[in-house]
Amino acid sequence: MTTLTKPPAESVLVRRPGPRELHPARTHRRRRALELSLALAVPLVLVLLWQLAATRAWIDDRVYPAPSTILADGWDRAAAGDLWPDVWATLKRVLAGYAAGTAAGYALGLLMGSLSLVRAALEPLLDALYVVPKLALLPIFLNMFGLGEGPQVALVAATVFFFVWISTMSAVMSIPAGHRDAGQVFGASRWQMFRHVLLPASLPAVLVGARIAAGVAVLVIVASEQIAATDGLGHLIFDSRALFQNDVMFVGIVCVAVLGVLFSELIRFAGRLLTPWAPRDRGRGQS
Amino acid sequence: MGEPYPKLRATHLTRAFGRTPHTVHALGPLDLTVAPGEFVCVVGPSGCGKSTLLRIAAGLLRPSTGTLEIRTTSARPAAMIFQDYGIYDWKTVRANVRFGLDIQRVPRREANARADDWLARMGLSDFADAYPATLSGGMRQRVAIARALAVEPELLLMDEPFAALDAQLRTILQDELLDITQSLRTTTLFITHSLEEAIVLGDRVLVMSARPGRIIAEHRPPFPRPRTGDIRATPEFTALKSELWDLLRKEAVPA
């Protein structure tokens, strides 16, 4: 579109396919490759920067050990078998608490979502408990279950419960009436209604709640292990700081991060298998 | 009319919504009989209670007063086709069509055979394993029709099934439905606000008033069965359509 040329030369505006249309497979592949490399490159660059800062002594490497030191230390501890008991202890508590909390939260969410009387009876109470910081309940759980695994698992379960309960309840309540009507006209029983309509219709939203809960479960267990446990990653982190073993502390932190990522990816993967109809939540351009 | 045993009979049927100070009378009083095998179309302005009538027939809603009787041998005589939301995103096309059969605990093998039969009749065989989200609006509604007919209902209830489709597709699906229902002769109550649709499909067209909906006119389109969509081009069709429109316009204009 040129307006400067003296005689308004006739121009033909052509709409033609771009690379995306001409080579859809190749463009898509390249796009995915670029996204993947960015996802890896950004953290990698930051770690390298940290390494550089540590070796150049821009930061005190006794307080912030270099990534290479952390990695070497973690490797040594893992090879010597010092790391696994703590990882295993944390993992066990998270999985047990998560399973119990998810099951209870889902069951109650479903019940409260579909029966307004149960909702009326329990919603104010649960809303009140919901806002209590779960870590503040740890002393109560310690009194109830004594020392050992009980209070840790109970704390994770209580935390997870609320996330799953709220997302399940709201998911069930927001199922369009038309979905229920169609089942009702065919004469679906309560169980059939649950299995064919309520469960699948609520599942995508429930899984979002379950994934958030997975991250928070790791967060809570680490905090509670710092307060009241003799093993586990939280204990490791806090204990090594007290002993001024900052490299061990960072090994623990990295382990927690890896554990959290793996756990929430696992839930996401399970969600994908369970809800093949739902749009993928990768969050990037799909079209 | 002279039918001794109507399939469906509504007597002084009314329905109100809301509690006393804010009560809205949505329907009736309404009297209606539908003969076995008859295809009855109900047209009326928006909010006149057409859908309320259908939901009462489906058993989703109870009437406030009056009764609606369905003469039937089964506990669940009706199947309903909804304007929207009827079919499930989480089931494949085949599983959607099989849904009513699954609910009735028809053995899986037989249910699959019947579902596949209906998918073939609706031209959907290639999409049996696809999820509805990948289908166009017209195909989704074909799935809904197949699902309703797969249970071989005694009474078919259709609530503006083609309202969300574009005009061309609507005409095509009307012709397909005409073809199917003329071979099945299932008793049908069909709600629409398209006069054309009502005249093409119906043995009888009922015109409802604005809220609270009552039947203000009844017409039998003068086209013998089996008929085809070609009747849209006849002068009788146009005449009937404009006659009904004159009636309906008075009701559709907000009072």
TrEMBL record, chain A:
Coiled coil regions, renumbered to chain: none
The ABC transmembrane type-1 domain, residue ranges: 87-267
InterPro entries hit by this protein: MetI-like, MetI-like_sf
Protein name per the record: ABC transporter permease
Keywords noted in UniProt: Cell membrane, Membrane, Transmembrane, Transmembrane helix, Transport
Organism: Streptomyces muensis
Alphabetized Pfam families for the sequence: BPD_transp_1 (PF00528)
Topology term for the membrane: Multi-pass membrane protein
GO CC, one annotated term: plasma membrane
GO BP term, example: cellular response to sulfur starvation
Domain of life: Bacteria
Automatic annotation (TrEMBL), chain B:
Entry-linked InterPro entries: AAA+_ATPase (IPR003593), ABC_transporter-like_ATP-bd (IPR003439), ABC_transporter-like_CS (IPR017871), ABC_transporter_ATP-bind (IPR050166), P-loop_NTPase (IPR027417)
SMART domains, A to Z: AAA (SM00382)
An MF annotation (GO) of this entry: ATP hydrolysis activity
Xref: Pfam families: ABC_tran (PF00005)
Keywords: ATP-binding, Nucleotide-binding, Transport
Record-annotated ABC transporter domain positions: 8-235
Entry annotated with the keyword 4Fe-4S: no
Keyword Amino-acid biosynthesis listed: no
SUPFAM superfamilies assigned to the protein according to its UniProt record, in alphabetical order: P-loop containing nucleoside triphosphate hydrolases
Highest taxon of the lineage: Bacteria
PROSITE patterns named in the record: ABC_TRANSPORTER_1, ABC_TRANSPORTER_2
Entry protein name: ABC transporter ATP-binding protein
